[in-house]
Known about the structure:
Blueprint: H1 2-28, E1 33-39, E2 47-52, E3 56-62, E4 67-73, H2 74-80, H3 87-116, H4 126-155, H5 162-167, E5 170-171, E6 176-178, H6 180-203, H7 206-215, H8 221-228
Helix pairs in contact: 1-3, 1-6, 3-4, 4-6
Amino acid sequence: MYLKKRSLIFVTFFCSCLAIGLLGSSLGTKSWVSATCQRTINTDKSNGSVHFGLFQYQSILNAGLGDRVDNQEMLKILYVERSFLIYELYIATIATVCGGIFFGIISAMMAIVNTASNPIEAICHVPGLYLWNSIALFSSLAAVVTWVVQYYLRLTHNVMVREARDQGLWSSEGMAQFGFSFYLVVIAAVIFLVNIIIIIHATRDPHSARKAMKLHPVPGKHAGDTMLY
C-alpha cells in the first residue's frame, strides 16, 4: 500500500512535467488564433491566412500577385493599435500561463519530495500536493477563460492589422478559430486535474474508512437496547 502510494505520487511528477512543457510551448508558438481572410474587393482573386500567438504575429496575404508574408511582434502591434486586443485580457492570459508553469514546477518538486521522503510540514505533504496542483489548474483554466473572452469580444471580428485592413481592404470577419497553442493550455489544465484525481486515489485509505465505520454507534434497535441496559 505504501509503495503504491509513492508510485502514484511519482506519476504526478511526470504529469506535471508534461503540463509544464505544454504551457511553455503555448507561450513560444504562434497559433493561439488562426484565421483565413479575403479582400472586400476582388474577393475571388484574393486569399490569405493569419496566425498569431502571445508574442508573434504572422500574416500571409495574396492579392493575386503572390504571397506577401508579414511577421511582427505582438507588443509592437499593440503599441500602435491599442484596440487590436483587449490589453488587460492579453496581459492576464500571459500572466496566468506563466502562473500555471510556476505552480506546475512547485507541484512537480513536491511530488519528488513526497516520493523520496515523508515530510512533516503540511504545505510539503499531501495537503501541499493538492494546493499546488489546484493553483496550477486554476491558473491554466484562467488563461483559457481570458483567451475565450478575448476571442469572442475581438478576434471573431478582426485579426488584421490596420495597414492590411484599411489600405489593403482585407477582412477576417467570422473566419477566425482557436489555434493549437490554445488547446495546449486546455490539455495542461486537464493534466493538472488528472494529478488531483491521482493524489485522491493514492492517499485514500480504505482500511481506515472501514475502521471508522466500525467505531460508529449502531443505530436502531441495538442502540436502544444498549440504552436500556
